[in-house]
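Worked Example 4.2. Read the sequence first, then its structure tokens.
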Amino acid sequence: MKLSFTTLGCPDWTLGELLERAPGYGFDGIDFRFLGGRTDLWHLPEFTQDLAQTARRIGDAGLTVSGLSSGVRIRTADGAAAQAACDELSRMVEIAHGLGAPMVRVFPGNSPDTPLEGALLHAMREQLSRYAAIGAQAGVGIAIETHDGCSSGAQIKRLLEAASNPAGVRSIWDIHHPLRHCGESPAETAMHLCGSLGYVHWKDSRLLPGGDAQLPNRDKLCLPGEGDLPMTAFVEALREIGYNGFIAFEWEKPWVPDLPPAEIAFPRFIESMRTLFPTCA
């Protein structure tokens, strides 16, 4: 199993800081979401005129770009908003191609309160087909995260099947969302995603008092190993479907400012994963 991290966990680090520190922690890969406090990567010289140099620097550091985590959503308002999403995805796909990244993450973007059917499902299917075509032009995959109104493996599978399982489109299993938001067990999620799974996002959390009374559960993100997510069940589920790709640590520091810094969280993640997956050592 290969270990990566998204730069969500260290949003203000420079490229130099990332490349200096990540190998020392024991990471194999890096997934860009932030750089130097910005998410609009296509405006940064590291990903525009210096893109080829950035790719060389990453390789020289012994790292692979496991993916790019965009904020693009499949479900958008019609017209200008849908086109703007396509334009943003195109820019991220161009960066991914230059860095040799296999995929760009997108969110479903639909509300959990609206059934995934009828006009909504049709609109998402059509937009996903546009995204698939954008990725195909550059040989970069599109990966849909278990999030929003498609937080379960079953919902991701439904969307992909509605779009006729477009070539190059994969799924990302954020282990937190299917269980905490939808009550879907790790084994169930693995079963639904086994034909499409391209990437895994890892985190830990613990239920707050009364958090298991109803879905979505009330919980709090915490350092790996300090929560109550059934980590061994996730490991068993991934082994059952033969997954051997990247597992990326998604430390949501910008959204939860009171979380410990990356300097504490990143080594803890590596330590916990080497316990769960001894072959990572």
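Now turn to a second chain, presented in exactly the same format:
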Amino acid sequence: MENEMLEWQNKAQVLIEALPYIQRFNRKIIVVKYGGSAMSDENIKKSVIQDVTLLKLVGFKPIIVHGGGKEISKWIEKAGLETNFVNGLRVTDEPTMEIAEMVLGKVGKSLVKMVQELGVRAIGISGKDGGMLKCKKKYAGGQDIGLVGEITDVDAKLIYDALENDFLPIISPIGMDEDFNTYNINADDAACAIARAVNADKLVFLTDIAGVYKDPKNPDTLISELTVSEANELINNGNIGGGMLPKLGNCIDAIENGVNRVHILDGRILHCLLLEIFTNKGIGTAILQDCEPKYYTEKN
């Protein structure tokens, strides 16, 4: 009985620790970019959707922007086509674009189903709907990579309408140019642009690594909180490379355009969103404005 009481008290302590964060972010918009390995494992997928749904139920206004790269590659292979990447961007011809749009729509609706099974109303939206994501052709180092889009504008009316009517928006990163041609958009870029457009309080990237490291080769050097100036210093010093470089660039861009805080989390950890947002130290890396005080320091 004593052990059971201790367990209940520990659970109560977790809730008490979460209380100031629930109060601070009540009715605030949080954009979650969901992709990578977190989408390919059913247990992790369920964990992510549970986390986002809980955020909605305790008063947040979450928005999911999802990818689907591995699923797209699988269907491209089934169709007997080749998958090519340039600087991390998928070369997208018309047949590939058709498959990508189909797969992203399917992924979006599967996430809608999972959210609604937990008692929250969700709506799957393509970036084409309502002219939400306007874009132009994107080039990779000057190379034409086909129907890959660079966002030029975000019309957030449809997103606001969904939030005001108590829906959880789940957005596929597909857009159109001024001639109504369809483009595949990098999900990180889409999440960043949407977060800026809706003045999100938080933007969260679920990735395949734990966060930003002072030394990428040393897992003990994970940085819990990082200002924009410190992030730029890491980039300029050559400490950041590979896939983290454009991601951190997106984080800095979001902060400089009005997003209060950006989080980089390992999406493979069960309930990583709740652990980051509702605990004092968190488990990933938070990037914040230079003027914002840190919650956590090495002295704590």
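Notes for the reader: The chain is about 40% helix and 25% strand. The chain has a mean pLDDT of 85.
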